[in-house]
Amino acid sequence: MRVRFHNHPLLQSLFLSTIFCFSILAHQPVSAGVLSIPLQRTIATQPITTLEIMAIVKTLFSGRVLSIKKFSSYSNPDCHYVKVLEDKGEFQMIRVGCFTDKVAQSKN
Fold it and tell me: Which of 76, 77, 90, 100 fits 36 for a cystine, CB–CB 3.0-4.6 Å?
C-alpha cells in the first residue's frame, strides 16, 4: 500500500503546521536576549527591595521601568525580572540578582 501526500489530509496538515512553526521561529530576533545585573544583599538577612532594584536599573538604563516581578527559588532568593522601555523605544528584559551568563554594562 502506497501513501501519497496529496491524498492524505493528516500528512498535509502536519507538513503545513511544521512549515508554519519554522517560519514563525525564523522571524524571531536572534540577538534579543535577557541581560543580567549581578546583585548581592548588603545585609545577609534582609532581601533586596524593589526600590534598590529600581535605583540600580535606572542608573544603568535611561528610560521607564515598566514592571518588576520577583522570581525567587532556593538557589536564587533575590531573583527579579525587570521590564524597561528605553528612551530610544527599545524594550529590555533584565534579570537582577539571578545567576546567568550575560551581564549588563553601563553605557558610558
Answer: 100
